[in-house]
């Protein structure tokens, strides 16, 4: 079943397989890491501990990984590894008279 869901980029001898499920798992793990850094910054802000890394370090890391996730999702969509949901704008409207 996993082989059927895989996409393949092939050059005569080399074949790299990308599984959409694995790509989605990577995105979810990156989002969880972003939340983890956000809560670490919150803990530092609330506790007021100045020892160790500053709060801005974790907030900066959160922003960096947010950009990485955004670029990763856009690249996966453009390369066809994942598909977006269809738009509701193109749906036909039913008007009741």
Question: Could you explain the architecture of this structure?
Answer:
With 97 residues, the chain is mainly α. The chain is built from 3 helices and 2 strands. It has helices at 2-5, 20-47, 55-79; strands spanning 7-11, 14-18. A two-stranded antiparallel ribbon has the order 1-2. Strand 1 (7-11) and strand 2 (14-18) form a beta hairpin. Helix 2 (20-47) runs antiparallel to helix 3. It is elongated. The N and C termini lie far apart (49 Å).
Summarize the structure.
The protein has 97 residues and is mainly α. The protein is built from three helices and two strands. It has helices at residues 2-5, 20-47, 55-79; strands at residues 7-11, 14-18.
Task: Quote the distance from N terminus to C terminus.
Answer: 49 Å
Secondary-structure-based class equals mainly alpha
Q: Oligomeric status of the shown chains?
A: single chain
Rg, nearest Å: 20 Å
Q: Biggest sheet, open or closed, and with what strands and sense?
A: 2 strands, antiparallel
Coarse shape: elongated
Mean pLDDT comes to: 80
**Strand segment count:** 2
DSSP strand (E) fraction? 5-15%
What order do the helices and strands follow?
HEEHH
Widest sheet: strand ordering = 1-2
Tally of separate helices: 3
Q: What portion of residues is helical?
A: 55-70%
Unreliable stretches covering 5 or more consecutive residues: 1-7
């Amino acid at each position: 079943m996993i082989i059927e869901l895989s996409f393949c980029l092939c050059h005569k001898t080399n074949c790299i397989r990308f599984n959409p499920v694995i790509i989605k798992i990577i995105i979810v793990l990156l989002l969880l890491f972003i939340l983890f850094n956000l809560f670490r910054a919150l803990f530092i802000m609330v506790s007021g501990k100045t020892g160790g890394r500053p709060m801005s370090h974790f907030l900066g890391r959160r922003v960096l990984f947010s950009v990485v996730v955004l670029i990763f999702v856009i690249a996966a969509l453009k390369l066809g590894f994942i598909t977006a949901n269809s738009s509701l704008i193109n749906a036909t409207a039913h008007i009741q008279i």
